[in-house]
Structures are given as structure tokens and as C-alpha cells.
Amino acid sequence: MAVRKISPNLALDHLVSLRQAAGEPIVHLGFGESRLPVFPGLVERLAEGADRNSYGPVPGAPGVLRAFAEYCARRSLPTDPDQVVVAPGSKALLLALQLVVPGDVLLAQPCWVTYAPQAVLAGKRVFGVPVPAECGGVPDPDALRERVRQARAEGGDPRIVVLTSPDNPTGTTATADLVRRICAVAEEEDLLLVSDEIYRDVLHDPGFEYLSPAEVSPSRTVVITGLSKSLALGGWRIGAARFPADEAGRRMRADVASVASEVWSTLAGPMQAVAEYAFDEPAELVARRDADARLHGAVARAVWRIAEDAGALTRPPTGGFYVYPDFEPLREPLARRGVVDGETLQAHLFTESGVAVLAGVHFGDDARALRFRAATSVLYGSTREEQHAAMAAADPTAVPHVAESLAAIEQAFTKLSAG
Amino acid sequence: MAVRKISPNLALDHLVSLRQAAGEPIVHLGFGESRLPVFPGLVERLAEGADRNSYGPVPGAPGVLRAFAEYCARRSLPTDPDQVVVAPGSKALLLALQLVVPGDVLLAQPCWVTYAPQAVLAGKRVFGVPVPAECGGVPDPDALRERVRQARAEGGDPRIVVLTSPDNPTGTTATADLVRRICAVAEEEDLLLVSDEIYRDVLHDPGFEYLSPAEVSPSRTVVITGLSKSLALGGWRIGAARFPADEAGRRMRADVASVASEVWSTLAGPMQAVAEYAFDEPAELVARRDADARLHGAVARAVWRIAEDAGALTRPPTGGFYVYPDFEPLREPLARRGVVDGETLQAHLFTESGVAVLAGVHFGDDARALRFRAATSVLYGSTREEQHAAMAAADPTAVPHVAESLAAIEQAFTKLSAG
């Protein structure tokens, strides 16, 4: 039995916790978690949902299915409750989907750490496709077409493309034009699009013209999402999926529900009560969620500016809470200190400056590249008081503990260029 | 893509809900759920755990790992917290285990509906082994040895045996002697034992001399359990696993945690708070749990007596909330009404008498056998008031709504023998 690894982001988070517990000051940019308090209305719904101790229907109770269908409809995706499945996290849904949809998987390079191991667990081959210059999370359309044909020539059977927008790790959002071009390739090459929209409600600019591939190619797009990111509920494990309305979509949804019935039975009843409330988007919750999105944007942009000033090439973040700098321009000075790839860069920042980041290689990026993901959402503070102060500030980057972390990051990044 | 099926127990439950919603009186013996209210202390812990919105360590937070380790130690299984993983249900743990442990699977015939589909999902072959006359849930030791050798001769690679005690579907518990004999075969044939002990705290007789195979063969036994059955928390999805303390066990646990990190991340934080409290077994909770076990025993025995009186052969229930009658003695009169196997018997009881049961074939039993599982735990009533009345009664079988259901079952079973 081969010894497998813990998902690298969760493993790094654990390592950081241990060093922090030992009293070391660590600036933790390694873990993609919105470290903010839970909105009180969600806590109320959790307690009210406590009497939901029956298993109930596998895909979810009627109330939560209706709420998520309406949530989708408000995003230009008309949806019947029968198209929906909720689950303990979007990961579980993604794995179930990979288990029931045949064919190999095409992934953007870089992409979220879990896509590739899940594909392998499901017995699939993974084909990486470079991302375009303008943003991450989606393959470059021309490279995608090319890769599909090449993979087929190699005996592969690429049939599924996973898209993430806004993206983890790059913190960028695909434009409508780019989404249309990818959908065109999917039509041409008969591909299923899995659109991971878990950061959709964490757009920094509420005016951003977001386009889901499910609007363009409704019959070949499965949307997955969850409440972990937009509502700071990572530890509550709530995910949802929307399947196409046609016969193939119905079959896919039934197959995913079948896997669900053998693996997780159903989303915990109290969490279904929470999800019903959240997907109904009451005004008080939306106000908090949108304020959080502004906070994520302000702090991500601050780290982006620091990286730019330190000489890295970095796409400006537009959604989520990530920055993905490329220190290629500093390859020479870095090489003098033994930093020659993503892993050595990650280790150098951790040991020399106490800054924890996750190297691009963990996201399937070129191992040699001097790129890493900085998750900026853990800068709001480690106590509820600090987090509330960051949330309340007109300029969160000026709040003392945030400013202090930003200064430490600035120092760490600037040191990278020092001869 | 083949259309898969929902787990048959969950599918039947849904069907019954629909007919009940349409106003039809159904005696629902089809679903293995302890339909009782949640103990208030558990609700409090759920609400208190609401601020656990961070992902935290994949196997579980230190508190819940310690609590479960101590829970095991109180059951003659000394355990280090590092041997434990908690998860959203024991199903998820079982699947992860099957994904990381190589080799094919040996299952008791009959056994719980999920074991075989999970083995297939994990790419394994399934070899069924008859259960002994004295109880279900474990293979007959001699038949097990025989089947292992035969499977190997056929090119199979049987390496894992799943044991369930107390058992679903038969409601019986393996004796210490039987467990020792199975462990001896496991030693001889180098098999891993997966001991599903989810009904262990639902023993009808607290004096029953329970023996876990983990006591006899600690290095080759993984124990899995959960809170769904003993604490009526099916809809809360809380499971736990205990791995062997040796190097192979550590590797297995790390591998399961690796799969967990890619599939469900971790058990929801508020549920970990609940699990910590529950596995600490405070006196007030234990009192409620033990009272529930007595209730389960009283009602299961009542249904067992009805089945016996109607002419079925049935092992007396000793744990859980199931009875598994065999109407073979009535094959002739049943055949005259077109009832010739488990499926037609199940359909006959549902349409003729409104009694929902699950045919033995769904548990991997011989399709031709006139056997079914009756889950007796749904007889306590459909409202909280009815359930509380059943819980409070010295003789729950005499509470009017329970007595009425028992009378309907008696009528239905007795009708089976009518010429």
C-alpha cells in the first residue's frame, strides 16, 4: 500500500499551527480559508436545524433544493429543484461526479490542489493545459483544443474540463469572452464542463460582468459551489451542485445521488437548514457577504502591490482571496541563495522570513517556476476581536495587526531581490 | 454511463414518505433509523460548536480524537488519539478504507446494503459467505476459510472481511466464541478484519459479553462506528474509525486521512463538538442511550414474537432494532398468491397490508429466500409526542400507537399463512 499524502494545503496549515503553538511568529499565507467569524443568523439556523436528525432524501430536503434552485435562477441560471444535490462540501460532489462520468480530465495549470488527486482516485488520466495570460482558472481555449487532440492521439479519452472562476490559486476571474471561447471548444470537442463557482460571491467588484459557462452551454455544464468561501464556513462543510436540465443531466444527477447514498448518505440535517437560509440570500446575510468580499479585495490587492513592488509579475486579483506572484524576474539573485524552483522558494520564505505560502507545483504548475500562492484571507487576524476590527475598518490594510503582517510580507518579498 | 441506483433502504424510505404524504397508512419497517428525538445536551453542543468554522486537522481536532480514544479504552481497547479518524458518517470511512487497502472483500450473507456497492466503487470483487445458524453479521468461520481458499483458486485476492455486530439486518450479536474463531481464520489466512460496531451501544441486554475482534487480533482489526444508531443521530452524520497501533495501522490511518483530505476534508466543526461530548459519555447521555437500547429491545422482541407466531423462523434479536424473519415454512401458501421470493414477498406486504420491509436480496441474501428485514425502530411514532410516550412507557409495546402498529403487523404476517 503506497503511503499517500494529505492534501498539501491542509498539511501546510497543520504545520503552521504547530509552529504557532510553539510561539513562533508566522505570517500564514498558505491556507485558502476565509478566517472570519460566522454570521449570527447562520448559527441560529444551525441550532434550529438540530431536530433534523432523520436521514431524509439523499440529494437534500425539498427546502434546500428549492433555495439553491432559486439562488441559481437569480444568477441567470433557471433551475428546477430536481437539478440540485447538496453535500458535505463541494469536494464530495466533485469526486462523485468523476466516479460517474467516464473519460479523462483536462485541468488548468495551475489549478486547485484537489482536482488532480480526485481524478486519479476515480481512475482517470489528467491532462494539464496552460492558462491564458489574462487570468487563471480556465485553460487557454486554443491550447485546450490542441491538448484534446493531442491527448486523443496519445490514446487518452479527454471528456471533462474543470473551470474555476474566480480562481484558486490565481485570484482572477474569467471574462465573458473567454468563457464563450471555452464553451465553443467544448461544443466542438464534445466536452463536459465542470464549473467550480465556489468563489462567485467573492468578486471584489460587484459590477464585474460574470458569465457562467452554464449560461452559454447549459446542456454540457455542471455547476458546483459551496458556502465555505463566501460565508467563511469552511469548517461547516456545505456544498451544492446543479446539473443540466436535460435527460443526460438527469441521469448524471441520479448517478451522483447513487454514489452519495453509498458514501455520505446526505448533508447533515442541521447544515441543510443553514444552507436553505443562506441560499435564500436574506438581505442581512448578503450585506455581510458583500462586505467580506470588499475586505478580501482590499487585502488581496495590498499583497498584490507588495509583490509587484518587489519585482514579481502578478495578475491583479479580482475575486477570492489569493495572489499568485511569479518571481521569475528575480531568478538570478534567488539562485545565488539556492532558490531555484517553487519548492525552494516556499521553503526559503518559511525559514528565512516566517512567511508560509504554497508553491505553484502543488497546483500542478511547472515545478521550476518561481511561483506560489499567497492566501491573503488569513491576514485578518487570529482572534475574533482582530477579525471584527478588520471587518469594521474603512481601510482594513491600515488596521494595526493587518498592517504589521503586510509590513512583514513586504520585508520578506523585498529581501528576495537583495543581492 | 450506466444508471446507478439509490441505496435501496434510502430509496424505500423516500417511497414510503411519498405514500404517507398522500395520506396512506403505512407501517414503515423498511428503514434502519432510530426515529427518536435528539438528546438536548447534543443540541447544546452543536450550537456551542458553531464557531468551529475553520477546517482544522483532517482526522479531527485533538479533543474529539482524545474522547473517542478514551471511549475505546473503556471498551477494553486501549487507544491513542493518533489511531483515530472522525468523518461525516462511518460510510465515508468505510469507502476510504476500501480505497486504500488492496485486495478483495468477503462479506457475510446477508449484510448491510452499502458494503457491496462500496467494494465495487473501490474496484474490488465481493465474495459472499453464509452466516452461521446462531447469528448474522459475521461469516461462518468454516465457510469463511473455505471461501477464501476457493476465491484464491478462482484468481481472486480476498484480504478484507467486514463484520457487523450487533448486526444489520439480522439484529443479532456474535458471541465471544464465534469472534475468536473468526479471528483465528483471519490469522491463518492473513485477512484484515473491519469491525462495524455502530450498534454496539444498542445491545438489548447490558450484561451481554461483547467481544470486539480488535481485542483478539489488534493488529489486523479496524473498528468503525458512529453516533447515528445509539443516539438517534442518523441525519447528523458522525462516524469514527480506530486503526491498529502498529506501523501498518499507522500507514493505513495516514492513507485514509489522505483520501479524506481529497473527499470530505474533515467532519464539520460543530459535529466534532457534538462527537467530543458524546464519546466522553457523560452520565446523563448514557442514561438516555441505555433507555433507548431497552426500548429498541422491547419493540424488536415484540415483532420477533409476532413473526414466530405467524410461522416464520427468526433468530431472537439481541442488538440494534431489526428482526429478520424467514417465511420458508409458508412457501406453499405464499406461492399460491404469487409470492415466490424475497422481492414478491416485500411487494405483497406493501400492497396488501401497507407494511414496508426490505427483502433479503437487498442485503445480498439468496433472492429466492422468503426473508426480509423489519426495522422496528420506526414504530415509536412519527411525532415527537408519540416518540416521547414510547420512551416514557414501562411497556412501550402497550402504548396505543405502538400497539396499533404491532396489531397491523400481526394481521399482515398472519394473513401470509392464510390459505
Written account of the structure:
Chains A, B: It comes from Actinosynnema mirum (strain ATCC 29888 / DSM 43827 / JCM 3225 / NBRC 14064 / NCIMB 13271 / NRRL B-12336 / IMRU 3971 / 101). Chains A, B: Keywords: Aminotransferase, Pyridoxal phosphate, Transferase. Chains A, B: Residues 26-374 form the Aminotransferase class I/classII large domain. Chains A, B: Pfam families: Aminotran_1_2. The structure is a homodimer of 419-residue chains. Chain A is an alpha/beta fold and 419 residues long. Chain A folds into two domains: 8-31 and 284-417, Aspartate Aminotransferase, domain 1 (Alpha-Beta Complex); 41-281, Aspartate Aminotransferase, domain 2 (3-Layer(aba) Sandwich). The first copy, chain A, is 44% helix and 12% strand. The first copy, chain A, has 15 helices and twelve strands. Chain A has helices at residues 8-21, 40-48, 62-73, 90-100, 115-121, 141-153, 176-189, 213-216, 247-263, 269-279, 283-309, 331-335, 342-353, 384-392, 400-417; strands at 27-28, 84-87, 104-109, 126-130, 158-164, 192-196, 221-226, 239-242, 322-323, 355-356, 358-359, 372-375. Chain A is globular and about 60 Å long. Chains A and B meet through helix 1, helix 2, helix 4, helix 5 and helix 9 of A and helix 1, helix 2, helix 4, helix 5 and helix 9 of B.
CATH architecture call of the largest domain in chain A: 3-Layer(aba) Sandwich
Oligomer: homodimer
Low-confidence stretches of chain A: none
The spatial strand order of the largest sheet of chain A comes to: 2-8-7-6-5-3-4
- Anisotropy-based shape of chain A: globular
Mean pLDDT across the residues of chain A is 95
For CATH, the homologous superfamily of the largest domain in chain A is named as Type I PLP-dependent aspartate aminotransferase-like (Major domain)
Mind telling me the C-alpha Rg of chain A? 21 Å
Task: List the secondary-structure elements of chain A in sequence, H or E.
Answer: HEHHEHEHEHEHEHEEHHHEHHEEEHH
End-to-end span of chain A in angstroms? 46 Å
* Total domain units of chain A: 2
The computed structural class of chain A is: alpha/beta
| CATH fold title of the largest domain in chain A | Aspartate Aminotransferase, domain 2
